[in-house]
Each structure stands twice: as C-alpha cells, then as structure tokens.
Amino acid sequence: MADFRTKLFGLTFSALTFAGMAFGQATCNYSPGSPNAVIAKGEETTAQVAPVSITCTAGPLGSVAGAISIQDFLGAPVTSKVLSTTGVTAGSTEAIAVTPSGTTFGTIGVGGSTINFSGVPVPALAAAATYTIVISNVRVNATTIALGTGAPPPIGSSVFITGGATVLVPASLAAVNVAFVQAGIGSRAVRGISAGAISATAGGVNFVVCTGYTPVAGTALSTILVVSEGFQTSFKTAANEAPQVAIAAGAVVAGSVSNAVASGTRIKIAFNNVPNNVAIYLPITLTAAAGGVLSMTTSETGAYAAVTPLTPSTSNGLLTSAGATFAQPGVLAAAPTVNSVGLAPVTISGGSGVAVYEVIVDGLATLDTFNIGAWIFTTANTVSGSSTAINEAVSFAPVGSTNIPNFAVTSSTSTLAGSTFNICTTSLIFPFVTNQLGFDTGIAISNTSADPFGTTRGATPQSGTCTLNFYGDGAPTPSSVATPTIQAGKSYAFQSSSVAAGFQGYLIVQCNFLFAHGMALIAGGPNAGISQGYLPGVIPDTNQINRGTVPTAGTTVGEFLGN
C-alpha cells in the first residue's frame, strides 16, 4: 500500500510541475482584426501581402524573456528581397518579425513558400500581460495563382510558433487570408482619327498604300489604347509601392542592400509589325478623368527619367493647325478635346518598339482609365503596304527584372490589332465568261493610272499585277492565276481558254493598283458568227469598304458597273 501511495504522489508531483511550467508560458493567437487582407496584382511577381499581427498573453505565473522560432507558410512562392548574400546572415530577406525586444530578418524556407524566423527575442511578462509580434514585408509571386471569372482567389498564411519551456506554448495558428489576387490591368484598342469623332470600333485606322506612293501622308491619330486599372489600388506611385517597413542598407550586415522600391507602377506598350518609314508618336503625359497621371519614362528599369517632347516642325510632321501640341483623346465617341499634350517618338527597330509610362499621381479610391492616343506620321512614296496590322500589347513593367516591383506577362495582356497600311486594289467582276460550245471570251485589263490631268488633278502612275479568280465549271487548279506586271498606260489581253480551258462561270480580277478597267468580248459559238461585249463591274476596294456591309438609306455602299 505504501508503495502505491509513493507512486501516486510521484505522478501527482510531476503533473503539478508540468502544469506550473505551462502556467509560466505565454500563449499566442492572431491579434483582433489581423490580417487586413490586401488585393495583389495577378501580374506581379513581388506582390506585398498584408502584415500579420500576433498577440501573446502570459499565464497566471507570467513568462520569462527568451527566444522563439516562427514559420510563416504562404500560399504562393515567397519573393521578399534578399538583403544579404554572404556571411552568417546570408539569405536574410526584407521580411521581418518585430517584437518589443527587437527585429528578426526572415529567410526563405525549403520549397520556397515559407519564411523562417529563428531566435526571435521576446520579453518577460507579468501575469496576464501581452506583447505583439508583427510579421511584415512579405512578398510573393502572385502570378502562380490561377485567376478565373469569379471572385478573386485568396493567398493564405499559416503561422507556427515554438519556444523554450518557460517562454511559449507551441502554437499552430489556422490559415488566414493575407491577400486576394486580381488582374491589375486591362486594355483595348479603338479607332481614332485626326479630326472629328473617335470611333469605339476595335482596332485602328485602315490606311491605304498604293504601289509607288502613299496617298495618306502626314500625322493622324490612328489608334487609341484604352488602358484600365483592374482595381482601385492597382496603379501606385513609388511612395505607395513602398514596403511596409523600410530597411536601411547595412541593417543586416555592412554593405547589404535596402528594400527600397525602384519605381511606381509602370505600364509598357509594345508595338510590332510597324511598316518601314512609319513613325509612331505618343503623348508624354496622360491624365485620367479620375485624376491619375501617367508620365513617359526612358526605360522599364532604373530611376524615373522624364522624356522631352518633340518640338513640332515640318520635318517630323508634328504641326497642328495651331502649330503647337496635340489634343489628348478624351471621352470616346467624342472629339479629342481633353487637354493639349506634347508628343515623343517610339524608337522603332525591325518593326518593333516600346514605350514605358510611370504612375506619377494615383487615386487609391478611384479606378483610373487612360486613353493613350497613338499618332503616326508618314511621307508620300515611302510606305509599303501590308495586310498585317500594327499591333500593340499593354502590360505592367518591368518584366523579368530584379526590380521591385516586378511583373510577368500574363493572360491580362493580349495582342491588340491597330492600324493597317493596306495595298490599294481595284477589283473587277466579269459576270459571265465561257469557252465552251465553241465560244471563247477575250478579256482586256487596262492600267489607266496614266492620264493627261497633271500632278495636281491626275492619278499617280502605278504598276502592278492582277490575280484572276475563276468561279464555275471547269475552273483551273489552282483557281487563281496571276498576270504579268501591267505598267501604267498599258493593257493586258488574253483569251479565257488560254488559262482556263473548258471554263464557264464568272471571274473576279484583283489588281494591286488603282484605276484598273476592263472589257470582255464573247465570240464564236456553233455558227462562229456571234459576238457580244460588255464592261465588268467595279467592286469597291475591299480594304476600305467591306463587301459584306449591308447598304443603308442615303449611302452609296455597294457595287456599281462600268466605272
């Protein structure tokens, strides 16, 4: 019996001892209202999530000073800036855990989605007293979060804390949301013209280039890029892009770097398929109706450097009727009258060029939309036509750098079709062509771009080829046949049997020059004495008028004969 009482006394003593130790520790949980989740740009690889605040409370016996360890498990890869790469502090990042006893720099854990804080100092506490741990400056790669069409997906944070036997009760805190991810930018292209209304139709102005000359020369507002903020805090100035806690260089080890941001939010416009001898000008400053301001800078990375606008002159084509600056596009479907802005050229090489803007003023309580007018300048006899439109892609910048902030090109960036420089054409339709039953059709095509009306009133001489497109029974394979080059003032004549033996149907002729005209003569038949001639119809240039357009009252859209 005595032996049993001894054992029971020993177990009771042990339980009381451990209970006493527990009463001497602090217990931790999230502070009320923490975290207050932020919205992260889905295009950003250095998205800053909300700080996490944790309150630790001592038990009835208080707790002693000591050191604890914290692991913060994130729902995306951690990209907090590394401040030290050498010595015992190698791998220390800008992510910090702050207690009343000091600041501890975190390191990125195995797998890349964890921040580890080791040896975090905590104070001694009297009974029921508290202290706070704040984890901040945590950045993640938000591009790894898939965006859908529903509510923005969250990025979670789970905190695990351990400490000495008299310091802290180990705690695994449930996951909380520190950010929601949403596309930060949107864009579309609409047509713009140099005077009058701005069309809300997608794309850009369709210019026409004829063989040998450019009939449209000078400066025109060809495309308006409508750039929209995805959510109210997406476009930020450098001050608003700053880390939650600034860390001075040398704070980790002598010579270590700071975590200062390189710039405010930057927006890049990349142009491609720009024809030779086409210059593109963009406004250097843009003001949104909600008050935000974009200003052109010289590069994606590095410090902001303002761009100087060009002085309007006859050589660069930037002379307006007032001889000054251009109007910034305002409300779409209305005249471009918001304010006058200076223009700067986009440097084009190999058909491509880039312009970069930085947010100088942001409205964190509003959604900003910028209408960026792309003005083009051409000179006569210099531009070659192409069926491929100039295209533009709008994204955040920089992409793929070590800067903060940094971005990736995601699904929010798409290729926008802008203006085209289509080749001038004349299309003729011969409604009946035959070389069956002893008949044959003679066809003549004349290039009438040479005329006696002089350089002011007359046509500009051109030369080019025509494509014969056969539709009907006995059409050749392939059904399209090219003619030789037809010089200005010359004609090309042939018999249909020479290119499409046994054919009967209709023929559409596409000539890559203006002022093509023709004639057809059907002759022969069973008695070899029948002949009939006619003039082909002229189909309006399909680069300028859609043949599928339904004519409306008062318009002249449609086909006409003999012109």
Radius of gyration over all CA atoms, rounded: 37 Å
Instruction: Give the total of domains.
Output: 3
Average pLDDT taken over every residue: 85
**Ends: how far apart?**
126 Å
Q: Summarize the amount of helix as a percent range.
A: under 10%
- Give the uncertain stretches in residue-range form: 4-22, 321-325, 330-339
Major β-sheet, in short? Answer: 6 strands, mixed
The tally of strands reads: 38
Lateral arrangement of strands in the main beta sheet: 2-13-12-5-9-8
Strand fraction: 35-45%
- Count of DSSP helices? 3
Which structural category fits the helices and strands? mainly beta
**Tertiary shape:** elongated
Secondary-structure topology with pairs:
Blueprint: H1 2-23, E1 26-30, E2 38-41, E3 47-48, E4 52-58, E5 66-74, E6 96-99, E7 102-105, E8 107-108, E9 114-122, E10 130-136, E11 139-140, E12 154-163, E13 171-182, E14 185-191, E15 206-209, E16 218-229, H2 238-241, E17 266-272, E18 279-283, E19 285-287, E20 293-297, E21 326-327, E22 340-341, E23 343-345, E24 353-361, E25 369-378, E26 391-397, E27 415-417, E28 420-423, E29 426-434, E30 439-447, H3 454-457, E31 466-473, E32 480-482, E33 491-495, E34 504-511, E35 516-524, E36 530-534, E37 537-539, E38 560-561
Parallel strand pairs: 2-13, 15-28
Antiparallel strand pairs: 1-4, 3-11, 4-10, 5-9, 5-12, 6-7, 6-10, 8-9, 12-13, 14-16, 16-25, 17-24, 17-26, 18-23, 18-25, 19-20, 20-24, 21-22, 26-27, 29-34, 29-37, 30-33, 30-35, 31-32, 31-34, 35-36, 37-38
